[in-house]
Structure formats: C-alpha cells, structure tokens
C-alpha cells in the first residue's frame, strides 16, 4: 500500500510539484513505518528531503536527509548513502556552509568511487570543483575538473562540456588586471604565472 502512495509522490517530485509530492510522501512514510518496511521508509525520507530542499526548507530537509542516512547505513544501502551525502553537500553549499559541504562532497565521492558510479563520481567532481573554485583554490579545482574529464563516460557530451567549462573558468580566474606601461588607465588582461602554467598544461593535453 505504501508503495502505491509513494510512487506517485516520487513522480510528482520529478515533475517539480514538490508541495503535492511532500503531502503524498508523508502519507507513504507513515504507512511504511507502521508496517516496518524500512527500505521504503528510507526511500520516503530521501524524497521528502529532496522536496524540502527544492522548497528551500533547509532545516526540514536536513532532518529528513540525516534520518535517511542513519537508516541507509543500518541497512547497508550504499547507493542511497552516496545519494544522501550528495544531497547534504548541495544543501550545505546553498547555506554557504563550506566546511560541511566539503565533508559531504568527500564522502559522496568516496562512496561513488567504491560503487563504480562513474556518472555520479564525475558530477561530484564538478560540484566539488565549483566549490574549490569559489574559494580560490585553483589547483584543487583544476585537478577535480580534469578528473571529471577523464571519468566522463564515452559519449557523455554534457559531462565533457562541463569539464571543459570548469577548466576554462579556472584559467579565467588565473588572470590578473594590470595597467598599460604608458600609464593609460584602460586595463588589459595579463596572464600571471599560474595562468601561463595552466595554459601550457591544456596545450600539452
């Protein structure tokens, strides 16, 4: 019965109808808890966390995700553990909690690597690289974007494009503004040492 209720809730969430999905999933969660269907409880918690995250109710989302993580660890559901850490990292970034985001990203990447989830791992590298780039950690960001490039499955054009985009943004951050030597106030872009080194790396493949 809880499956019949939860599945439409998941579908509603995928359609972006998060308020309706939340109501549906809350009913399914109660039923799953009543009959002791722990995997379905975990599934409902994960999806409810996603609904609250989309609705920007971060406190509620964190509670659902944390409960889902505890249950997924108890049940040994490694795929869901990976997913929860990824969701927690995303939420931490939205809340500008960089320390927690970094911890969660590292956990998500670790589990994705163990599971051989190439797509999840590559996207994790991208999001973690974005965070490093925002913090000005250019070397770390570049390494993650390059790692994403090597991981992107054959034919995954979107991932490859994101990898190139990430590397390009690292290069853009490695430039500095200087004034013309003749004293003109009009600035121009000049590669600093890091920028030159990164450009050479790209040219050499």
Automatic annotation (TrEMBL):
Record has Mitochondrion as a keyword: no
Subcellular location per the Swiss-Prot or TrEMBL entry: Cytoplasm
Annotated Gene Ontology cellular component terms: cytoplasm
UniProt keyword terms in alphabetical order: Cytoplasm, Repeat, TPR repeat
KW S-adenosyl-L-methionine (keyword) present: no
InterPro entries: Bac_ResReg_Asp_Phosphatase, TPR-like_helical_dom_sf, TPR_rpt
Family designation: Belongs to the Rap family.
Protein name in UniProt: Tetratricopeptide repeat protein
């Amino acid at each position: 019965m809880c499956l019949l209720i939860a599945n439409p809730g998941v579908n509603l969430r995928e359609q972006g109808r998060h308020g309706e999905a939340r109501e549906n999933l809350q009913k399914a969660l109660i039923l799953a808890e009543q009959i002791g269907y722990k995997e379905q409880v975990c599934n409902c918690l994960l999806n409810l966390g996603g609904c609250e995250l989309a609705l920007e109710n971060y406190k509620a989302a964190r509670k659902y995700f944390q409960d889902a993580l505890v249950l997924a660890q108890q049940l040994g559901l490694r795929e869901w553990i990976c997913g929860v850490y990824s969701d927690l990292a995303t939420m931490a970034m939205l809340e500008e909690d960089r320390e927690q985001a970094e911890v969660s990203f590292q956990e998500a990447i670790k589990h994705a690597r163990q599971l051989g989830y190439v797509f999840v791992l590559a996207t994790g590298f991208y999001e973690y690289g974005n965070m490093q780039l925002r913090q000005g950690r250019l070397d770390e960001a570049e390494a993650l974007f390059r790692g994403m490039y090597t991981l992107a499955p054959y034919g995954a054009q979107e991932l490859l494009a994101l990898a190139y985009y990430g590397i390009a943004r690292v290069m853009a951050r490695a430039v500095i503004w200087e004034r013309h030597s003749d004293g003109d106030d009009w600035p121009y872009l000049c590669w600093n040492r890091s920028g030159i080194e990164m450009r050479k790396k790209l040219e050499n493949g």
